[in-house]
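Continuing the series of single-chain predictions for the mutant panel. This is the parent chain; the variants come on the following pages.
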Amino acid sequence: MGSYRVCVCFQRRFKAAEAVPPAETKELFTKYAQGGTHMNAEQLRHFLVEVQGDESVSDAQPIVEQVLQKRHHIAKFTRNTLTLEDFHHYLFDPELNPPIGSQVHQDMKAPLSHYFIYAGHNSYLTGNQLSSDCSDVPIIKALNRGVRVVELDIWPKSTKDDVLVLQGRYFYFSFKG
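Parent structure:
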């Protein structure tokens, strides 16, 4: 019998990390959870009415239960309150807290930075950030889903009569002006 060589190649696997709540979300959570580590349904209702301008919420308990069910997959809840991470997940999950339609729910007199905005990062990419192509199709899909801010990395062409949307200066599509 001959000898066999075994080559084992390791692939590094990356786990998708959940976004960390930004400072503004932490401040709102602390304020409405009254300095505590958990927000109950009544505190969430106050947030929804006072910050989000949603006067239609009379009981936020179903929202709390829905968030806990989705995040923790628990049929029978051991707690009825949201952590900071649960609250952050609720704010930015389009299924739990979908973008508003064409109807404006707030007075919109405050500076833009005072509002939570559903935004797209590298909205022009067809897939992952490292190896995908650029296209206008993902931008159109994002806008149809409710995204209100679209990031574009725009570079002028050498002829100065057009611009390119580039990811790392490799992939592009062009806009005709």
